[in-house]
Amino acid sequence: MSNVTVCVRFRPLSAKEKRDIGDNICIQSIDSENFIIKDEKEEGFTFSFDKIFYEESKQADVYEFLVLPIVRDAVNSINGTIIAYGQTGAGKTYSMEGSNILESDEKKKGILPRVVDGLFTCIKTSADSTKYTIKLSMVEIYMEKVRDLFDLSKDNIQIKESKIQGILLSGATEISLSNPAKALQSLSSGIANRAIGETQMNMASSRSHCVYMFTIDQQSLSEKRVKSGKLVLVDLAGSEKVEKTGAEGRLLEEAKTINKSLSALGNVINALTCGTPAKASHIPYRDSKLTRLLQDALGGNSRSALLCCCSPSPSNASESLSTLRFGARARHIKTSPLVKVNEDKGSDKKNGALSGTRDETFEKILEKMSERLNAEDVKLLEELFIQAGLFVDLDSTDDLESNFQDVVEQTISSLMKAVEELRSAVQMLQRENMTLKERLGAAERLDALPGGTADFLQKISGLLSYFIPGMQR
Ligand SMILES: Nc1ncnc2c1ncn2[C@@H]1O[C@H](COP(=O)(O)OP(=O)(O)OP(=O)(O)O)[C@@H](O)[C@H]1O
Ligand SMILES: [Mg+2]
Fold this sequence. Notes:
Distance between the termini: 82 Å
Bound molecules: adenosine-5'-triphosphate, magnesium ion
Mean pLDDT: 83
CATH architecture of the largest domain: 3-Layer(aba) Sandwich
Number of helices: 16
Helix content: 40-55%
Shape: elongated
Strand content: 15-25%
Low-confidence stretches: 343-355
Radius of gyration: 33 Å
Number of domains: 3
CATH class of the largest domain: Alpha Beta
Structural class: alpha+beta
């Protein structure tokens, strides 16, 4: 088991923050892992993380500490995820992309171009007997829909779970990256399609969660085995206090959806770290597209890291505190990174079959079929694959799960009803039992009376029964 690595990055004060309240900052450094932050009431809170990147930190520092170990693991087929989290305008996109994805200034390059360089360097230095292929998919979650940033016509990508590959984006475009220049060009074209808007905090605010998915296939030529590593980078849309920023219209709707999915992410993290095994089985991954997509990263076999981006300005202290509390909680998540080896594909190739993992093969069959069949037939074929257990459709898993929950709830409520009925039956029997006991006692007392008295009382009782309705003779 390994913990999620959590780092904090404070960006420099923005021009607006300086204009509004001068050069004051609300953080006080203790060392590279600890600091104190003061809230609006000047109350200090101490936080500890794996590393704190203060305002003067370099892009290269963040990459080397937080990202490089995960890149190396991904080349060795251990899945990895890096998530940038924080308030709008806190520096997530700057950390991920740099000031521009095609930035040539070495110092300003963000995580993504460094990941590209890192992947190709790792591959270059690996053994000749291994053949690598790197592929890239880019999607954004905008207003709870997953859009393919390489093909805008695919605006409702389904998230599926394959037994072999884990969470995957069904039908999302995958671009083969043959060299770093091609990779940067592809990233740049995808980024250009991302939803951007202007908020009070950020002139170019990301209005969607952006997911960069690198797949690194490693084929050992001697053993004919394929190992696959997935490296997922997530540049989240920023949380926003709408009452503070005064967002209206479309911006307000976007902000509400963003805040909702971020709170779903918070709920998943709370559930994962709440500690009781009973609760741990109810992780609400299906409450949002974002949490579904991050299911492997948070609760699965992925090595994960979180970069909490914050403003150092006292005017944003409460937002920074909430980001830091989120990060502190996420530090307790444990994941179990492991290497996944795919089936031997050598024999398939000899038979002229389609290359790729088993799920990829079925995806390709579906793709080929869609050229000949109409959409409904292809959908039917896909459903048959899912029914045969070749794919797992998360939506249908959800249906099954909720049906199962319904049945459990119904069973519990009918059992409770039956217990209630049994309880009242027992009470009734107890009352009858009491009456019978009383009658028996009375009969015994009557029998014990001297002979003449008993006959006399019997006659009186017979007489009274004529006058008192319901009385037994
Ligand atoms: N470490 C930094 N050094 C210099 N400038 C930075 C740094 N971090 C952020 N900035 C600048 O701050 C502004 C906002 O940053 P950025 O766009 O990365 O925010 P964000 O967290 O992605 O916000 P949103 O959630 O709205 O997308 C940008 O102009 C960016 O260049
Ligand atoms: Mg952004």
